[in-house]
Amino acid sequence: MHYPSLRFKGDARSLTKEPISREAYKANLVEAISVLRENLNRTIVSIVSMWNSQLIFDAQSLIEKGKRMQCGDHYMEKRDILCNEYRKVAYEIQNERKFDSEDFTVVVQGVMDNIRDAFRNKDGAYDKSFYAEDMFHLSKYGNAVIGKFLWNSMLEPVGNKSDNVNLGHDFIPLKCPTKKTKHDMIE
Questions:
Q1: Nearest 5 degrees, angle CA 171-CA 174-CA 179?
Q2: Each residue of 29-38: pLDDT tens digit?
Q3: How far, in Å, CA of 130 to CA of 118, rounded?
Q4: Rounded to a whole number, what is the largest CA-CA distance in the chain?
Q5: Which of 4, 59, 116, 162 is 20 to 30 A from residue 135's alpha carbon, by CA?
Q6: How many CA atoms does the CB half-sphere of 59 hold within 13 Å?
């Protein structure tokens, strides 16, 4: 299987000065899902919508200084708008139902959609334990917390998914799949 437009070596970690447009982002996502649909059956493609940038980009500044990172030139505003547009694209693709068939569908997991701040613990204080040493990536703990909320979201019905979780409530139990949740996952 060869797809000439997919350039993993050149695209995987490239950072460009110009952001990828909403339209290009959607085209790339549609192309990727098309590849999956052509090559997989009995598949639920679960898209984690774009996180609010403050969770990662501003973490160090919020935790150490108590305020968002300052970059000037309206960078932060542009970044936040673009992240929001990318998030909307994921939902558009899900709601268009273009990829839905008897054995394939696309579902957005918007569990992080309404988180607009760096991680705070259960007492409400900013907490570095959620982040790796570089304060840009997540720690094992951060990945575990998000993984738990993501798992629970995957077992919720489309249109009724949690989208405003409190990451500081890491004691939330994991949900167990049932025959009903299996049906709800794809409806």
A1: 155
A2: 999 999 999 9
A3: 9
A4: 52
A5: 162
A6: 23
